[in-house]
Amino acid sequence: MTKNGSSEFRLVGTRPNRPDGLDKVTGRARYGADASMPGMLHGAVVRSPHAHARIVKIDTSKAEALPGVKGVVTRADFPTGLTGEDWDLQENTMAGEKALYDGHAVAAVAATSPLLAQEAARLIEVEYEVLPHVIDVDDAIKPDAPAIRPGAADHSVPEGSPPNVVRYLEFGHGDIEAGFAEADLVMENTYKTEATHQGYIEPHACVGQLGADGKGEMWVCTQGQWYIRRMCAAVLGIEAAQLRVTPSEIGGGFGGKTTIFMEPLSLALSRKAGGKPVKIVMSRSEVLRATGPTASASMDVKIGMKKDGTITAGYANFRMQGGAFPGAPVDMALYCAFAGYKLANVKHVGYDVLANRPKCAAYRAPGSPMGAFAVESLVDEMARKLGLDPLDVRLKNAVREGDKASYGPTFGSIGLVETLEAAKAHPNLKAPLGPNQGRGVACGYWFNHGGETSVSMAIGEDGTATVSVGTPDIGGGRASIALMVAETLGIDYDDVRVNVVETGALGVNEPTHGSRATFASGKAAVESTNQAIKEMCRRAAAEWGIDPEAVEWVNGAAQPTSSNAGKFAPMTIKEIAAKMGSTGGPISGHYEGLPSGVGASFGTHVVDVEVDPETGRTTILRYLVVQDAGRAIHPAYVEGQYQGGAVQGIGWALNEAYIYGEDGRLQNPIFLDYRVPVASDLPMIDTVIVEVPNPGHPYGVRGVGETGITPPLPAIANAIEHATGQRIRHLPISPPKLLKAIKSAAPSGPTLQAAE
Amino acid sequence: MRYHSPTSFDEAVGIAAKAQGVTRFLAGGTDVLVQMRAGAVLPDDLIDVKKIPGVRDITRTPDGGWKIGVAVSGAELGAHEELCRDWPGVVEGMELVGSTQVQGRATLTGNLCNGSPAADSVPGLVAAGATVTVTGANGTREVAVQDIPSRPGKTSLAQGEVISAINLPPRGENAGDAYLRFIPRTEMDIAVVGCAVSLRVDGHKIVEARVALGAVAPTVLLVSDAADALIGSTLDDAALEALATAARAACKPIDDKRGTVEFRVDVAGVLARRAARIAYDRAKGVSK
Ligand SMILES: Cc1cc2nc3c(=O)[nH]c(=O)nc-3n(C[C@H](O)[C@H](O)[C@H](O)COP(=O)(O)OP(=O)(O)OC[C@H]3O[C@@H](n4cnc5c(N)ncnc54)[C@H](O)[C@@H]3O)c2cc1C
After folding, report:
1. Considering only the top CATH level, what class is A453-593?
2. What's this model's pTM, rounded to 2 decimal places?
3. A27, A123, A675, A704: most buried, per Cβ within 10 A?
4. What is the ipTM for the molecules in this complex?
């Protein structure tokens, strides 16, 4: 369902088929593993079976002796002397002195077939000295925890901190003690979330080719071809300009494909094998063991509330581990945690902690779901205690335009209140609840992002338009950009083709991350289009012999204005394009820069659950996503983003988690046991698109991709308490955990009723 | 790896008896091929049983029972109306295996011989009192289904033995069976607990019963105490409670990533109660 009833636009707000749709449903679309080159070799990676181990010796001789093996690489094949994030990337690509997690790459081999490469990988002998390891964030932050990387802490970490703390932050405003003193109710609790994986269906895959001359190419499934280029170049010590990176179609990324994993290995192997292209395709278990999950978190939250629901102060202390490398999104988690609340007094403290797990990567609104779980759970607990409606409590404290955000800046135009009001008015809120059923609400936030952007568009000889963008299409970006360009130009949607291009075709683009593609590439495409329109007006003016300022663009044609109005018949884009070769040459437009005017997006979710009191199994009965899109360029794809975010959040809340054994090995590196929701688990996810247009975008766009994963974690925990009386503060709320809670509360056997 | 496609069970037995290294039979391949792809099992000899005549047949035996060929897929079982009428619990166990795609290939025999304690079709077969025909160098023997799995991933079959059929007894009048499993999701999951109940009534009274549990011990369990709790009752609350208690008492589960000991024991009792109710209604003709 969409609230976009406006007929302000001809195309924006309509729902045409996506330009890549036919290719995808017919199997013609080329994904990462579909790339194939003449003379191509296949790579396989040897991975550490230990969570933490010194690498004593690597013997590659047997593998190298196997006929068909063309190259083996270890860390010795990489340059030394890297620092900071570059060193982290290199270390994660290929272990150096120590293997830092189960699945950490220690060697790689290229051979003439995938089977041979796997056989050769089994022949590589690695001698390890196993070291004590630590997995859980609360264990990792202990003073006596095994030190994973002494010296990795940055300047922010106070002297005398535990060895695995690598970053510390503290910020806020007002006086929280004074705030708590004003409150009628002060509550404090600890919440935990487990690491989850982005769970994209397409595993990482690439073909890399690198010659002795330092020139190379890569075909890869990624959210950001320039990031791949920069990171591979840094890790391998080659020049970025000499590496040309072409992105494939992408079967999901959710943030996890904004960085490198095995890509430099294919290049290093290619260089070893005389420049032959090397293909590496990860298996699902490699994806789960060695690519970016998100962080796990342990969080204390304290809130003061008055009897009427007014929040007087908030305090958050978050500890997060993001694997054996700095970079857990504890900062983002804290920025977002209280973002929906207007707070005079707020304080945040955060610790980024190392643990023997894979290096975390971005995952849809990195950090925000954890922060929301902690804060939105506690707000619900307090509202319940004070007998207040949870939506009213949020409305009472909701931030509005001009308010100072909990993390510092002042909000521009935002739509939190509008989402809360739309949620209140939705029929799902009136659906009756039966026994063992409960309803939960929660809000969520994401900043959205502009970022480095470069876009070109060109008018074809027939008056159609080609747009070159650098942001791989993971969320329907091509359709939205085509709609905006066609709207602006005054031509049909089908007459615009949007291509996602390789690194040689444009200036640097950040990846499709931060929900930025439709905002940033879209804004850049509209600006490029306006340049081309200006040029077309100039060509018409020249032909008419009038001042270009006296020509305007209306409905796909140049037409004279003011004193010249009506003197000349409008000159259509087709006419201008047909003769552009003799009127001054190609007509195109270009934009590069850092698009400003980003609009943040708030969302409010309402979920109804039913809990089987005898098994602890939770069924989602109804699920409503209400979110501010700014403007929905293609409402169906906006709804798809809302639904997808909600489903990933539902998985995180109920069943998804990285499960480790005592030995520090990941026990569920397979979709059978890493339980993402399946289609039959879910009802249709209801959506309401709220449109509070972003004044910073020509069509009012905010990003919509990320906010949606944020509220489900607390909303479901809140609904489960409503259904069972049990508050679970540690995700996932799996059946064994919930059943145990239910039974310990009612030792004589479960006798449950709906709370209302 | 050598791939064989014998055209008789004797030929299959001959190949298997001679094989030196890792040997696997290939029915639907939904376990074997997946294990091969993952590098977990790399057979030296792979013996495809699907080319043997009759392996896809479902036949009524003279005594009114059923003989099911070793290559009959889950989808074929589910499409067989008469079999479904006789043994809905057996069929629903098999139909829970995998997805539509997997159903087109997966077999009862493969599910049994893969040796997973969580195999979904096995409790139903055990509750039904099913047997398998085992063909070896010295002819055939008939073995109760519960005697085939010996521990996780292993069977009691000797080298050179192959299962040549699955046999279900005659269903008879006023009888019903049912299988339920617990999974955290709704499909594509491994049973955390499974329970099958088969029973016969005389009027309202239960006169025969068999109860089998899956995923709560190294192999499938046939729980006679649980059956005894039902026999002679009208499935009143006391009988259901006694059934749950007996089922729980029989469990010897492990704590693992799929569930805790406490959870499995508890839910075994819950599923036993629920499966018994369904089987009872089926026996009385109240439901299908
Ligand atoms: C996606 C997916 C989902 C699944 N879901 C489930 C599920 O929900 N529940 C469940 O229980 N299982 C599940 N499975 C496992 C599998 O599908 C079942 O165990 C299936 O019944 C195996 O049958 P098959 O015919 O494919 O066996 P195969 O893979 O062909 O063989 C399995 C084993 O049986 C042996 N074998 C086969 N035939 C004979 C014979 N005639 N004599 C002696 N030994 C023999 C083989 O040597 C092998 O060891 C799933 C598998 C997949 C891939």
Report:
1. alpha beta
2. 0.96
3. A704
4. 0.95
